[in-house]
Amino acid sequence: MIPFNKPYLTGKEMHYMYQAVYSGKISGNGVYTQKCQKYFQNRYGIKKALLTTSCTDALEMCALLIDIKPGDEVIVPSYTFVSTALAFARQGAKIVFADSREDHPGMDEKTLEELITPRTKAIVPVHYAGIACDMDKVMALAKRYNLIVVEDAAQAIEANYKGRPLGSIGHLAAFSFHETKNVISGEGGLLAINDDRFIDRSEIIWEKGTNRAEFFRGEVNKYEWIDTGSSFLPSEITAAFLWAQLENLEDIQAKRKAIWNTYHSKLQSWANHNDIKQPQIPSYAGNNAHMYYLCFESLLQRQRVIEQLKDLDIQAVSHYLSLHDSKYYRSKNYEIDRTFPMSDRYTDCLLRLPLYYELSKEDQQRIIEALKSIRLQPVSSNGMDKKVTADSNA
Ligand SMILES: *Cc1c(COP(=O)(O)O)cnc(C)c1O
């Protein structure tokens, strides 16, 4: 089976983890943590970077930093991972969903202004597949209405907006190093702080509400409980693993981009001919090859493709279920008088193809040939769709 994802090891991970273990400092905020944080600060021009145990945690830190309280509203795309909304919902925010763009699963910036109310506190753009949201538009709205922008840059390492690194534009941003992302540490994340107002408090929230980080720098002679927080920092073992990945970042990216470009060019005429949508990259967005996806014409068509690829030993997968339609959100009984046709469409029709460092040229060619060989059923009428289902079950 060609898997959808395979975590890539650069070869140095165990070595650095061994060093971390035998250095005698295994808990967080040691040498490797600081190496990783400095790396991101320098490379992306982030004012302060803090490693976290996940992107979810980094988003939760954002919710604490911006003082989300019950009654506040936070604008989030419906087509995203649970954490984007959950981090704010658990502090009591009402989540207000934005629909996706027609040409791209990211939030439709045109619709944002009408979602803003006097209770709106923040906008959380998600750079889906590492493809930037139109950040000039988002930041201009935030300025006009005095809102905080938290970039969910979980998928956006090495991607850019008009040449500016994603994660360095919003007031705050969160990255992920989950094993499904470009650069990994098993579980792991990073909080990026680009607005001075949040710098001092961030370190306190990160260290269980204490000024322990200051204490270890010798700036105070005892540390104590001074704010809210949690244990958001990863151990040095995780940071050491991440460091081995960061040392190979450019190699990882070059390989992923080559795979992405091969899919894009070799599937082009087939996709055009069959009305299957390939990713569209807006001119302002620099692609980081996080994901290669296709958008089919219907749920049924996509499901048949998944099944047929599986029969050919290829694992291709769907992605998010729109959050506006989730069990948890519906249980809140918010009155929503809007629909989310684009988010629903990506929920039903989007398919992700295998993309990982060790995907061989031969295996990728096999995936491309397999896709082209699939008999795509007409999707024009429900009657036909039903007949197709019956056929396939026979
Ligand atoms: C992966 C992902 C997350 C969650 O990241 P974790 O590190 O697993 O917590 C959040 N948002 C988006 C858009 C993601 O892709």
Automatic annotation (TrEMBL):
Question: Which Pfam family, any one of them, does this sequence belong to?
Answer: DegT_DnrJ_EryC1
Q: Which SUPFAM superfamilies match?
A: PLP-dependent transferases
As stated in the Swiss-Prot or TrEMBL entry, residues carrying the post-translational modification N6-(pyridoxal phosphate)lysine are: 181
- Per the UniProt entry, what is one GO biological process? polysaccharide biosynthetic process
Q: Which family does it belong to?
A: Belongs to the DegT/DnrJ/EryC1 family.
Keyword list (alphabetical) reads:
Pyridoxal phosphate
The molecule here is called dTDP-4-amino-4,6-dideoxygalactose transaminase
Matching entries from InterPro entries are given as: DegT/StrS_aminotransferase, PyrdxlP-dep_Trfase, PyrdxlP-dep_Trfase_major, PyrdxlP-dep_Trfase_small, WecE-like
Q: Which sequence ranges form a coiled-coil region, renumbered to this chain? A: none
